[in-house]
Amino acid sequence: MRKNIVAGNWKMNTTVPEGVELAKAVNEAVVAQELKCDVILGVPFTHLTAVKQVIDINKVGLAAENCADHNSGAYTGEVSAPMVASTGANYVILGHSERRGYYNETNEMLKTKVDLALEAGLKVIFCCGESLEEREAGKVEEVIKAEISESLFHLSNEQWANIVIAYEPIWAIGTGKTATSDQAQEVHAFIRNLVAEKYGKQLAEDTTILYGGSCKPSNAQELFAKPDIDGGLIGGASLKANDFMGIVTAF
Ligand code: PGA
Fold first, then answer.
1. N or C: which terminus of the chain carries fewer CB neighbours within 10 A?
2. Hey, CA dihedral for 214, 22, 41, 81, is it positive or negative?
3. Residue 243 phi/psi, 5° resolution?
4. Cα–Cα distances in Å, from 33 out to 28, 30, 52, 132, 134?
5. Residue nearest to atom 3 of ligand 1 (CA)
6. Global pTM?
């Protein structure tokens, strides 16, 4: 059975004390109720250890927002997958369009990061998505297929069980322009088919595919009602506990 997941992606926001307060508030709300989805907080590297201390890790997952493409060594400023795992985090977000765009992360580099993350025992939330120009040029499927197949399709069936896909159309991220639930469903179904062709129908059915891009309490329910949308990766709306919980409880 596939899992429903709502994951926050705080990006480069909050100081450590602010992040700890936010995590505490989310944790408190999560443990107080029976939820129909898993909840994960994606936080800056600097916050992982402190946030880990204030969440109930069995109820609230913890993700880094990136990891290095090496395990250790002379890479000043980088943070490796084993370092992330050593904080008690259980997930890492990889391939976010901001990392691809601003820091030139390629499909090939992400393939290495995925391998190192899995090796370190982390689950991967792997992001993919097209730009507005690519959508207008009719290249959505081509872009998504390249991103997913070039970074993930070398994995074994066993490894695949640790992959969550996040479809995030770049034109919808932080813009207030959400993809319509039909637009999102169409791409999610395409992704699930792609996975089925490679890993078979059962593994595809079991794969969690999240939508990301201006997801908020007011549109989450309609998005999550679609058959192939299994939750969300939430940026802006994850920075306020109430908004984030409004999305979590949309299931
Ligand atoms: P947003 O970001 O919810 O602020 O659009 C989503 C994301 O980038 O993961």
1. N
2. positive
3. -65, -45
4. 9, 6, 20, 39, 41
5. 235
6. 0.98
pLDDT tens digits for range 124-171: 999 999 999 999 999 999 999 999 999 999 999 999 999 999 999 999
* pLDDT of 163: 98
Q: How far apart are CA 116 and CA 195, in angstroms?
A: 21
Reading the block at residue 155, the tokens are 């994995």
Positions of E strands within the chain: 5-9, 38-43, 60-64, 91-94, 123-128, 163-167, 209-212, 231-234
Which sequence spans correspond to the domains of the chain?
5-242
Asked if residue 70 lies in contact with residue 16, where contact means CB atoms within 8 angstroms, the answer is: no
Q: Give the torsion through C-alpha atoms of 204, 161, 99, 54, to 10 deg.
A: 130
Cβ atoms of 250 and 221 within 8 Å: the answer is yes
Pocket-testing residue among 41, 175, 214, 248, ligand 1, by greatest number of atoms within 8 A of Cβ = 214
Residues of the chain with confidence (pLDDT) below 70:
none
**Does domain 5-242 bear CATH number 3.20.20.70?**
yes
Q: For residue 60, what are the β-bridge partners?
A: 39
Q: Would you say the CB of residue 213 lies under 6 angstroms from ligand 1?
A: yes
